[in-house]
Design brief:
Layout (H helix, E strand, L loop, with lengths): L1 E7 L5 H13 L4 E6 L7 H9 L5 E4 L2 H4 L3 H14 L2 E4 L4 E2 L3 H39 L9 H9 L4 H8 L3 H12 L2 H12 L6
Parallel strand pairs: 1-2, 1-3, 3-4
Antiparallel strand pairs: 4-5
Helix pairs in contact: 6-7, 6-8, 7-8
GO molecular function: DNA binding; DNA strand exchange activity
Keywords: DNA integration, DNA recombination, DNA-binding
Protein name: Resolvase domain protein
């Protein structure tokens, strides 16, 4: 017996499902299982179809993506069909696993899809590694120091240290440090750094 399976996602129109049913009937499907379900939702009709099939039957679909969600999922379904002595026919690919050529084509499709996925994952890992390396050498831009000009401007306008910190999203201590650094003469900056290095206070 030729058993047809049709599926569309929940966001696709009913016409898409009807078109699949029409093509399956034209291809000789004697029993049809059809459903509308998301790509991650349960597929009860597919499970029913797999349970209904018997040795010598043929499962027919219009496209590969109507049947399987991934390479692993395809392998699982094909394994179940082979264990039951059922062949698979995919109209859109002209593929029929009851023939040696059809089996070879299906294996090639699965291998290519798996290869592409592994290449994609490898590129993703390389991209992440490069980003981490760049971050390690470039480092983060100091948030408070980058706002020195804004701190000085707000201080000149008469804002309190607390108001400046709140407005710019930095700590009050950072505001004090920035203003102190800006206002100290060059020789005082050097002296302050020297005293700080030995654990003393400039005051």
């Amino acid at each position: 017996m030729i058993v047809g399976y049709a599926r569309t996602s929940t966001i696709e129109q009913q016409a898409g499902l009807e078109a699949q049913v029409r093509d399956l009937k034209a291809a000789g499907a004697e029993r049809l299982f059809q459903e509308q379900t998301s790509s991650v939702g349960p597929r009860k009709e597919l499970e029913d179809a797999l349970g209904f099939l018997r040795e010598g039957d043929v499962l027919i679909v219009t496209k590969l993506d109507r049947l399987a969600r991934s390479v692993a999922n395809l392998g699982d379904i094909v394994g179940k069909l082979e264990n039951k002595g059922v062949s698979l026919r995919i109209i859109g690919l002209g593929l029929d696993t009851s023939t040696p050529t059809g089996k070879l084509m299906l294996n090639l499709l699965g291998s290519i899809a798996q290869f592409e996925r592994e290449i994609m994952l490898e590129r993703q890992r390389e991209g992440i590694a490069k980003a981490k390396t760049a971050g390690k050498y470039l480092g983060r831009k100091p948030t408070a120091k980058a706002k020195t000009a804004e701190v000085v401007r707000l201080d000149a306008q008469g804002h309190t240290r607390e108001a400046i910190a709140s407005q710019l999203g930095i700590g009050v201590a950072s505001v004090y440090r920035i203003l102190q650094a800006v206002r100290l003469p060059k020789h005082e900056k050097i002296q302050t750094k020297a005293l700080a290095a030995v654990g003393l206070d400039a005051g």
